[in-house]
Write a structure and sequence with these properties.
This protein is mainly α and 322 residues long. It is 70% helix and 1% strand. A hairpin with a 2-residue loop joins strand 1 and strand 2. Helix 1 crosses helix 4 and helix 9 crosses helix 10. The protein binds 3-methylbut-3-enyl trihydrogen diphosphate (2 copies) and magnesium ion (2 copies). One magnesium ion (MG) binds next to loops.
């Protein structure tokens, strides 16, 4: 695997819930030592990419940096680098694309917090972008982050060549559009204050979170010119852990607190959101998350030791404290 240099200070590492540590303690230690240098590399690159276009309008650049450079876990760019590593490349070879995925994720969070969507005033442990900069600027900063992401993808062409970059672009546009993240967000809003069912919930959660995680792994693997069968397996894994990630998000929203999570809790209930705990209770929600994690790890059993971080990551998604 690649040699990675620590380049910038960083936020707290990915951590497991104490009640889940048990036999997963070794997964936590291995995951932290795998992800930490990569998160630092990604944070440094994000800082660089967002300062390149400096200048006017100053407030727009400040809002974009505020949205991205806070205390994010960087799960998606880490997955993108991992997809590349599994296919014989390095995080550095796909860094613009990995950061593009984080910019798209950050844009989705800025818009998700807006009064018109979830109306949440806390994100990554500080005021949400619209609370700090106002709604107009938050909307436009989200738009500009999306656009900057595609600039980075164009830049990726210099490292990966035109054909793999076009394939990566296609994966990302599908994952973010009507059939992906945005589609999931719309169904999420439409399901508010309705009875709902598991099929709708599955649709929402796999698209809200699964589509971008699936795309992250597939983009890394595609840019590294991995074989199509491996790219497909990684996609399956990403889809399933994304779904589990969102179920655990619902659970943490009920059982954790804003200081630990860095975002509000119990808001899902007040907004009448369709969530797993609301539909099937906390215990069954955790079981379904476990089933999704098993589905994810089963999808990659044929991959060798280079795919071990996928196994530690699966364990993290289930047991995460934040
Ligand atoms: C939050 O994603 C939105 C969901 C899909 C649940 P993360 O939990 O990855 O958020 P950050 O990037 O660490 O803030
Ligand atoms: C956010 O989902 C998903 C996207 C932004 C695509 P949620 O609304 O459930 O997540 P949080 O709790 O605000 O992070
Ligand atoms: Mg939401
Ligand atoms: Mg939200």
């Amino acid at each position: 695997m690649s040699q990675i240099v620590d380049m910038s200070p960083d936020s707290a590492p990915l951590s497991f819930r104490p009640d889940y540590l048990g036999h997963r303690r070794s997964d936590e230690l291995k995951l932290v030592s795998y992800t930490e240098p990569r998160r630092r590399r990604i944070n440094h690159a994000l800082q660089q990419y967002l300062s390149e276009s400096g200048g006017r309008p100053k407030a727009l650049h400040e809002a974009m940096q505020y949205a991205v450079l806070g205390d994010g876990k960087r799960v998606r760019p880490v997955l993108c680098g991992l997809g590349a590593e599994i296919c014989g490349s390095k995080l550095d070879d796909v860094l613009p694309a990995a950061c593009a995925l984080e910019l798209i994720h950050a844009f989705s969070l800025v818009h998700d917090d807006l009064p018109a969507i979830d109306n949440d005033d806390l994100r990554r442990g500080r005021p949400s972008c619209h609370v700090k900069f106002g709604q107009a600027l938050a909307i436009l900063a989200g738009d500009a982050l999306f656009s900057r992401a595609f600039e980075l993808l164009v830049q990726q062409r210099q490292q990966s060549g035109p054909a793999p970059t076009m394939d990566a672009l296609q994966i990302i546009t599908e994952a973010t559009g009507t059939d992906g993240m945005v589609g999931g967000q719309v169904e999420d809003i439409c399901a508010e204050n309705k009875e709902g069912d598991l099929e709708t919930l599955e649709f929402i959660h796999s698209r809200k979170a699964g589509s971008l995680m699936r795309a992250s792994l597939m983009v890394g693997a595609t840019l590294a010119q991995g074989d199509p069968a491996t790219v497909e397996l990684l996609g399956k894994y990403g889809w399933a852990i994304g779904h589990a990630f969102q179920i655990v998000d619902d659970i943490l929203g009920e059982t954790s607190d804003p200081v630990s999570l860095g975002k509000p809790t119990l808001n899902d209930r007040t907004r009448g959101k369709l969530t797993y705990p609301r539909l099937v209770g906390l215990e069954r929600s955790q079981q379904i998350a476990e089933e999704k994690i098993t589905e994810a790890t089963n999808a990659v059993t044929t991959l060798g030791a280079e795919a071990d971080p996928l196994r530690w990551m699966a364990s993290y998604v289930l047991a995460r404290s934040k």
